[in-house]
Design a protein that fits this description.
heterodimer, A: 531 residues, Cytochrome C Oxidase, Chain A, 69% helix, B: 179 residues, Ctag/Cox11 (Pfam 04442), 2 domains, 5-stranded mixed sheet, 4-stranded antiparallel sheet, elongated
Chain lengths: 531, 179
């Protein structure tokens, strides 16, 4: 940080230094930074678990671990990546960028903001602690049901499930508080003249994510609470012998679980247009169409959940309803794809790292979306359900569509946040390694799924050996190339690299670029007026 | 532009509304439990049949123009060490005709064990037309060590059963009864 900025801070207030600064901070930039750093750490932790899984699957037969441990790894990998990496990364960007983009001095509820973040580390500890306890002979390890907690398996399993239930409670409370904060900030803290239809698309995407979160996280919390009381307090919500129904759990879970997909993706759909427009040197195409598409997808996402359980035994009319409603989501999504491509159309494009990630993201997320249409088809799903085709599909949507989108955003706003340019050479290397290794990892899994390999198994039939080996090699390249990402970020934070201009990207638009890089600790104390 | 206190009040008001949404979503989650049960019962989704005695009155109208095959399946769930199977694997009936069949159960352990049978009908759309007059699944069944028991089932298939359903499978999952 520059001495000028430090002098500026000291002038404003005397906040504590060292660890107390971070524990007690209510500054949106500090909290945003903590969210992003936390997400990056958990991304590496979850990634390490995925690599252990891929190492086991490198060859058929049991090589490295017991099947129980394998099951624990896949479930905790998913929970960490979704709740402790992608969601906190999105919330981190929201904290950093939304006040800057709408010309607000800070988030509307700064103390709630601090609390929301500090619930995350205990939740992460709760998720991973059972692994360590098992080493000392306490319990039998972490949750081994997969991230979906399906009853009756989750009713019967060991203490790992209890830890996961409490972790989900904490993560849920944190997300709900973050969401309330974001909604209030966007509604009440906009600069004069910043009407809702002038709101940056990132804020729009987050607004809908926040509404989805407050509507669906309580349902997940309710479902896992019922699970907890079934396990310990003699209720029978999911116990058929006591008059309950295990299928009910699946409906409750996916009522949350499907909107969750869009909760993870909407913030990314929000900031991709900023990047595309900056590097195409053209305004965003179809702003209104994109906002309305966000709304359409947000609302539709609440009424399509049962496509995750097509094979559970539903009557034909229900199957048809969920198939058609699911497929109808592709219409507003196609509008978004059209707008993204039209934004680039005939633009003066240049391909710095954020743009590489954004354009690569469109293609890879497109594959994820299209294979989702295959799974939405009831007849096709009867074959592909619970196969590696599903695994490949959701990694195209959530690793490419989620994580690589976050990486695009990171490279785009890192110079603004840290005041330093990352190494463009390493950034490009990171992109190409990530994009190629990602396809090497997950493209073979489509074929494995088509050939009939079920997901969530530590061992497999011999005919799947070659594709699994390719996939594992890809996974290790993919995992290791993320170290470049970490290096790039760390060197920016440590002040290496050349100093970033206030507006490092020629075509970038938005209030955040009117501030210095890095922005002062307290920005927009006098709100700007938007014309 | 709002001043600081005005904004504070507006923020609080909005937070309260949003907390209301969260509370409503919590209530909705728990309301889904009875709602789901009712929907399943009314529509027969999930093959749920009524677990109470049906009235016999429909039985007077027997539709002799067609036959329906009723197949019987019985399974014990983990935790219940009983031998359990239907006495006959299937029976052909006319809709409306009252039929008596039975299942056989034996406790193969050396402890008294109570079990609860949970019925399910396939295809699901036939569930609401399958009427049980007397069934061992209406209450818990307790067997002493080594005890055997004939478990009777009296039922009829409603004449309103859609024409396209020719075979109905009735499956019982026997669980260890919970206290």
């Amino acid at each position: 940080m520059t001495t000028a900025a430090q002098a500026h801070e000291a002038h404003h207030d005397h906040h504590p230094t060292g660890i107390m600064r971070w524990l007690t901070t209510t500054n949106h930039k500090d909290i945003g930074t903590m969210y992003l750093v936390f997400a990056l750490i958990m991304f590496m932790v979850g990634g390490a678990m995925a690599l252990a899984v891929r190492a086991e699957l490198f060859q058929p037969g049991m090589q490295l671990m017991r099947p129980e441990f394998f099951n624990q790894l896949i479930g905790v990998h998913a929970l960490i990546m979704i709740f402790a990496a992608l969601m906190p990364a999105a919330t981190g960007f929201a904290n950093w960028l939304i006040p800057l983009q709408i010309g607000a001095p800070d988030m509307a509820l700064p103390r709630l903001n601090n609390w929301g973040f500090w619930l995350l580390p205990p939740a992460a500890i709760l998720l991973t602690l059972p692994f360590i306890l098992a080493l000392f002979g306490i319990g039998d390890g972490a949750i081994a049901t997969g991230w979906t907690f399906y009853a009756p398996l989750s009713v019967q399993e060991g203490i790992g499930v209890d830890f996961a239930i409490f972790a989900v409670h904490l993560l849920g409370i944190s997300s709900v508080m973050g969401s309330i904060n974001i909604i209030v900030t966007i509604f009440n803290m906009r600069a004069p003249g910043m009407t809702m239809m002038k709101l940056p698309l990132f804020a729009w995407g987050w607004l809908i994510t926040a509404f989805l979160l407050i509507a669906t996280i309580p349902v997940l919390a309710g479902a896992v609470t019922m699970l907890l009381t079934d396990r310990h307090f003699g209720t029978h919500f999911f116990n058929a012998a006591g008059g309950g129904d295990p299928i009910l759990f699946q409906h409750l879970f996916w009522f949350f679980g499907h909107p969750e997909v869009y909760i993870l993706l909407l913030p990314v759909w929000g900031f991709i247009p900023h990047i595309l427009s900056a590097f195409s040197r053209k305004p965003t195409y179809g702003y209104k169409a994109q906002v309305y598409s966000f709304w359409a997808i947000g609302i539709l996402s609440l009424v399509v959940w049962a496509h995750h359980v097509f094979t559970v035994g539903m009557p034909v009319p229900a199957l048809l309803y969920f198939m058609y409603s699911t497929m109808s989501i592709s219409l507003p999504l196609a509008v978004l794809f059209f707008c993204w491509i039209a934004t680039m159309w005939r633009g003066a494009m240049s391909f710095e790292t954020p743009m590489l990630f954004a354009t690569g993201w469109i293609i890879l997320f497109g594959i994820g979306g299209l294979t989702g249409l295959v799974l939405a088809d009831v007849a096709a799903d009867a074959q592909y359900h619970h196969s590696y085709f599903v695994v490949a599909h959701f990694h195209y949507t959530l690793f490419a569509g989620g994580m690589m989108g976050m990486m695009a955003g990171t490279y785009f706003w890192l110079p603004k946040m840290t005041g330093r340019m990352y190494s463009e050479k390493l950034g490009k290397l990171h992109f190409w390694l990530t994009a190629i290794a990602f396809n090497l990892t997950f493209m073979p899994q489509f074929f494995l799924g088509l050939a009939g390999m079920p997901r969530r198994i530590p061992d497999y039939a011999l005919q799947f050996a070659e594709f699994n080996m390719i996939s594992s090699i890809g996974a290790f390249i993919l995992g290791l190339s993320q170290l470049i990402f970490v290096y790039n970020i760390v060197s920016c934070i440590r002040g290496q690299g050349e100093k970033a201009a206030d507006k490092p990207w020629e075509g970038a638009e938005g209030l955040e670029w009117t501030l210095s890089s890095p922005p002062p600790y307290h920005s927009f104390t006098v709100q700007p007026v938007v014309k | 532009m709002m001043d600081a206190t005005e904004r504070e009040i507006a923020n609080r008001r909005l937070v309260r509304k949003l907390l209301g949404v969260v509370a409503a979503a919590c209530v909705f989650a728990f309301a889904l439990v009875p709602l789901y049960d009712v929907i399943c019962r009314v529509t027969g989704f999930n093959g749920k049949t009524g677990n109470a005695a049906a009235q016999v009155e429909h039985a007077t109208r027997v539709d002799t123009s067609r036959w329906v095959t009723v197949e019987f399946v019985g399974n014990t769930m983990p935790g219940l060490s009983w031998e359990f199977h239907p006495r006959q694997s299937s029976v052909r009936v006319h809709p409306g005709q009252v039929e008596l069949t039975s299942y056989f159960a034996r406790n193969i352990t050396n402890q008294p064990v109570a079990g609860q049978a949970v019925p399910s009908v396939s295809p699901g759309q036939a569930a609401q037309y399958f009427k049980k007059i007397e069934c061992f699944c209406f209450q818990r069944q307790e067997l002493k060590p080594g005890e055997t028991k004939e478990m009777p089932l009296t039922f009829y298939v409603s004449p309103d059963l859609p024409e396209n359903v020719q075979t109905i499978t009735l499956s019982y999952a026997f669980y260890r009864a919970v206290q």
